[in-house]
From TrEMBL:
Organism: Cupriavidus basilensis OR16
SUPFAM superfamilies, per the entry: MTH938-like
Protein name: Uncharacterized protein
Pfam families: DUF498
Length: 115
């Protein structure tokens, strides 16, 4: 997987530009579906990442890119990662992409592209 460009609101992966949050699951890229987490938006001031979303747990490491640091990651996600023995790495998206480029083996990701 090659990350070719990242800027506020978009990322280019393997020649395809995405202008929405993405989930990377064993090399496949798809749109993040936030709807299951929207019910928590008011409590966080932003739609957080909750365990109710379709999280790509089939990995040894899950990298979460938080945009500029604003994406809240709920405790239920952290608890589920511990339960599944998945190393959870939470970083601003630019750093998360760098981490994925350096250590891609066994990693899945959720990348927030704004805020």
């Amino acid at each position: 997987m090659r990350f070719e460009a990242f800027s506020f609101g978009s990322v280019c992966i393997d020649g395809v530009t995405y202008q929405h949050d993405v989930v990377i699951d064993r090399g496949e890229v798809r749109k993040r579906k936030k709807k299951p987490s929207r019910q928590f938006r008011e409590a966080f001031g932003h739609t957080p990442l909750s365990a109710r979303e379709d999280i790509p747990w089939n990995c040894s490491q899950l990298v979460i890119g938080t945009g500029t640091g604003a994406l809240p990651v709920m405790e239920d996600v952290k608890r589920e990662a511990r339960h599944r023995h998945v190393d959870l790495v939470i970083l601003p998206t630019a750093e998360a992409i760098a981490r994925l480029e350096e250590h891609p083996r066994g990693a899945n990701a959720i990348l927030h592209l704004t805020c």
